[in-house]
Amino acid sequence: MSLYGFSEVKPRKHREAGSWSSTWENVPPKFHNLVPLLVFSENEKDQARDFVTGRKRKISGNIIHKASNVIHVHESKLVGFQLCSNDTSDCATYTFSSGINAIQEWYKLHYMNIMAQVPLEKKINMSYSAEELLLTCFFDGMSCDARNFTLFHHPMYGNCYTFNNRENATILSTSMGGSEHGLQVILYVNEEEYNPFLVSSTGAKVLVHRQNEYPFIEDVGTEIETAMSTSIGMHLTESFKLSEPYSQCTEDGRDVPMNNIYKAAYSLQICLYSCFQMKMVEKCGCAQYSQPLPPAANYCNYQQHPNWMYCYYQLYQAFIQEELGCQSVCKETCSFKEWALTTSLARWPSEVSEKWLLSVLTWDQGQQINKKLNKTDLAKLLIFYKDLNQRSIVESPANSIEMLLSNFGGQLGLWMSCSVVCVIEIIEVFFIDFFSIIARRQWQKAKEWWARKQDPSCPEASSSQQGQDNPALSIDDDLPTFTSAMRLPPAPEPQVPGTPPPRYNTLRLERTFSQQLTDTQLPTES
């Protein structure tokens, strides 16, 4: 670790804060003399020139072009470096489009190589403690301190701290939204202890996540600046997806055949990273240092795994092209939460308050920090709920069984004037009655067969005696139905008694009286 300008023996808080600029004034760090930058020319194959001396060197082994597949660059300006094993028998060359990318990548690889061999306890002591990082803490109108933060060591970012983690003895909560009821902290960011070849920006990174969720600091997060006040308003959105048969999501990841090396709540990103780490252990023999260590595996370093970077890049390309099978194994979660963040910045501290703020903070941290604070060493963070409302997005099926039957009945009624009752009657006529007729005929045949078996001497007696004179009087144990009644012969019509023909001689006129009365006689005409 002396290559980085400080010793790993003493903890960070017991070291004197040294400036990198003062280190460079006398003796440059060893890394500056050890960076073997090479310049590659289009006309010279299998050869490269030393970046400092200009001498030609013969290049052998695998060459990895990290800038040729995505961005079209001029091949005459490629810059890279070569990494070899301890016995220099096997080498790999990495090329970049810029010397800045080559130097930073070279330092990052050696940093991962060195830190992979340092015990975790020493790495924690080399980073900032919560007491050093947090100068002030205020939550929901009450003071808080380092006891409300839980240590989380990240392989690349060092010591990180989680507020209100589930491992805390006391979980703080707020019942109101707004900036006055959120978390307010002032962070100490000592730029003088930054490694200029690994980090080229100053500030801190903040990530909002659930208590049981793994924080992927290197992928997501909000960066805050020094000498600035950063306000972050949060709004929660919760989404619920339908599981099978509507989608292939999983509830908790138990049905996914993949070992979760992060020991946190399942997510698609955790599954993909776990799959990639397990594939790397299988193919390369070691695990990538920037991710958690899988069971029964070691972090990669050049002493034990000289070609692990070449194996890593080849495996990563296969992972991007979905050739490892991780994308087909891992599933999305059916329910997840997302935080919509609104960020605003302001200069802090102001010119009128800078003097007294820095003086009080220097006095407060006199035992922890042996220097006079500057505003470029500080960053103020204010994070709060914009409101306590929660937005929920719930998936529902476009058509269910009930809606399908309802739509089907509506279409039948609209286009065919048919209802469910009609459909049931049609089913009854064409199916139920059909089967009942067949069953009745089979039953009748069975009875006839049984009758012939009981009286074998006269097999046709029973049949000849039934329905000879009147087929309607056939014996049947079953009650007649509408269909069977249609098969009965029509009943004979009864004879209505007739009316005798009239006697026409009775219609003749007969004289009622033999003589006309005298008073009714008409006078005779003369």
Structure in words:
The chain has 526 residues and is α+β, with helices and mostly antiparallel strands. 28% of the residues lie in helices and 19% in strands. The protein is built from 13 helices and 16 strands. The strands form four sheets. The chain has a six-stranded mixed beta sheet with strand order 3-2-1-5-6-4, with helices on one face. A six-stranded mixed beta sheet has the order 8-7-11-16-14-15. Strand 5 and strand 6 form a beta hairpin. Residues 1-11, 13-29, 68-74 and 461-469 have low confidence and may be disordered.
**Topology order in helix (H) and strand (E) letters:** HHEEEEEEHHHEEEEEEEEHHHEHEHHHH
For the biggest β-sheet, the strand order reads: 3-2-1-5-6-4
β-strand amount: 15-25%
How many beta-strand segments?
16
Structural class: alpha+beta
First-to-last CA distance: 179 Å
**Total of helices:** 13
Which oligomerization state do the chains in this entry correspond to? single chain
Point out poorly predicted stretches: 1-11, 13-29, 68-74, 461-469
* Backbone shape: elongated
Helix content: 25-40%
- Summed over residues and divided by their number, the pLDDT gives a mean of 78
**What profile does the largest beta sheet have?**
6 strands, mixed
Question: Radius of gyration, Cα only, in angstroms?
Answer: 49 Å
